[in-house]
Amino acid sequence: MAATKQFEAESKRLLDIMINSIYSQKEIFLRELISNASDAIDKMYYKALTDDSITFNQDDFYIKVSADKDNRILKIEDTGVGMTEEELEQNLGTIAQSGSLAFKNENEIEDGHDIIGQFGVGFYSAFMVADTVTVYTKSADSGQAFKWQSNGAEGYTIEPAEKETHGTQILIQVKESSEEENYDDYLEENRLQSIIKKYSDYIRYPIKMDVTEQQPQEDNEEETVEVTEEQTINSMIPIWKKNKSELTDEDYEAFYAERRYGFDKPLKHVHLSIDGQVRYQAILFIPENTPFDYYTQDYEKGLELYSNGVLIMEKCADLLPDYFGFVKGIVDSEDLSLNISREMLQHDRQLRLIGKNIKSKIKKELQSMLKNERENYEKFYQSFGRQLKFGVQMDYGANKDDLKDLLLFYSSKEKKMVSLAEYVERMKDDQQYIYYATGESYDRIEKLPQTEMVLDKGYEILYFTEDIDEFAIKTLMSYDDKEFKSVASGDLGIESEEDEEKEESEQQENKEMFDELKNLLAGKVKDVRASKRLKSHPVCLTADGEVSIEMEKILQSMPD
Ligand code: ADP
Ligand code: MG
């Protein structure tokens, strides 16, 4: 009988803490054991590359998961490097000891290899569901196999064992279910399959399981028989590493739903495979609907960030400018190191390059949508146009050139949304300015006396109903060298000399009346004047200077 060795004191405490707190969901033990198996196969693969006496045969490398319900045993088996007695002792006897990290350091592996482990705690997560864990392992470097066994708290035993081929088998004696916790699930074929899909879908080696299914009989299609066959559960190649031509819109939509990017269908997806200054693959989505918390502090922008198929961060905010914060998706780059910290990421040159690249791709995509899929673009704009207008104004207008061509405003012409380019394109020959009017609603704006004269000239007016509209164009100042002008401003740039002379003479003729009015309205208005811009209305209010009456209202309502 092998002597029982104690875990080191700290290890025992750590084990308790870990089992009870690190992992919020028990099911992830399977992810950890499968990642270890994948690491072990990677190491074998690496060995084969560096040692001519080992022949590498793709089919020999797999992970197999099987459940024996009657005996409550779940088995995870791999054909990886295995462990020697010393390695068993070191790696499974000491918590927070990672053989995988040591392997990477010793072999100075930088890229091209995809070993996941580095913290040395994943293995013990098995004790969340196990009464006893038994490991049979045979190293590719030695002839003798060993058995390691532990029930968690009481330490572990190691003794020689029989095993023909190199690799590791992990046997989990699954706990009995209690009222609080159901462990039977971890012996159910369907449940195991779905856990594997959820966490380990992109593991590069096949994860196999014997699956029992009802299949139609060969000679009699009406009748079914139970057939058990070995199936590969994981898709191995992540969707973003697949070729665009192999994928359909439905595949992308399914991915969008699977990753829980939103409950809507995406309006648009962009699949990128960049092989330039920095290498990365990405799938980006433009959602159709505004997330309920989008325009609040609670909304967290960001893209999923992977390093060669392994998740680094669920929401990497640095990859998206605020004004494109609505974009969802994933980025995978082999140029990023896995064990990079959140703080370091911010300053990472590769990441900054990827971010810059992604920004320009999104901009291009939106521009092409505006040009070629107008209806979709307007749907998008309904949800996120406000964000773009905020974007123009943010950072003292630093991004205005990126955004000005993406803006739409409601227009007096045809009562539709127009872009600034479209407005300028159809400006009248004698028209100097881009006119706009502000108000609570399109109806209200339409009835403003100030709009009349401009419309009479056949000029188009942009109708601004959102607070941010006027702020945004004040930041832009002009578009295509055409300045913006409020129809409520003093000088509309329409009045002819003749008009002005007439206005002046009327002003003189009625001087007494105007002075009287001015006295009556003292403190409320600055001046009372004759105007040529009125047609059917007897009087209108005009703003003094650059700030429109609407804008003044907003400014006054703001806290100091
Ligand atoms: P990590 O994977 O972060 O290194 P783990 O606790 O998951 O930490 O595993 C500890 C170590 O045990 C690994 O680094 C590896 O050296 C060894 N190990 C675990 N599982 C296997 C396996 N299936 N085959 C070979 N070695 C393994
Ligand atoms: Mg691990």
Automatic annotation (TrEMBL):
Compartment(s) of residence: Cytoplasm
Residue segments, region A: 1-342
Primary location recorded for the protein, binned into one broad class: cytoplasm
GO function terms (MF aspect): ATP binding; ATP hydrolysis activity; ATP-dependent protein folding chaperone; unfolded protein binding
Assigned GO CC terms: cytoplasm
Pfam family, one: HATPase_c_3
Keywords noted in UniProt: ATP-binding, Chaperone, Cytoplasm, Nucleotide-binding, Stress response
Positions of the UniProt region annotated as Disordered: 490-510
Record-listed ATP binding positions: 32, 36, 78, 83, 91, 98-99, 118-123, 168, 342
Protein's UniProt keywords contain Transcription regulation: no
Annotated PROSITE patterns: HSP90
Acidic residues bias locations: 494-507
InterPro entries: HATPase_C_sf, Heat_shock_protein_90_CS, HSP90_C, Hsp90_fam, Hsp90_N, Ribosomal_Su5_D2-typ_SF
Record carries keyword Cytoplasm: yes
Superkingdom assignment: Bacteria
Quaternary structure and interacting proteins, as annotated: Homodimer.
Function: Molecular chaperone. Has ATPase activity.
Entry-linked HAMAP family: HSP90
Family: Belongs to the heat shock protein 90 family.
Protein name: Chaperone protein HtpG
Originating organism: Salibacterium salarium
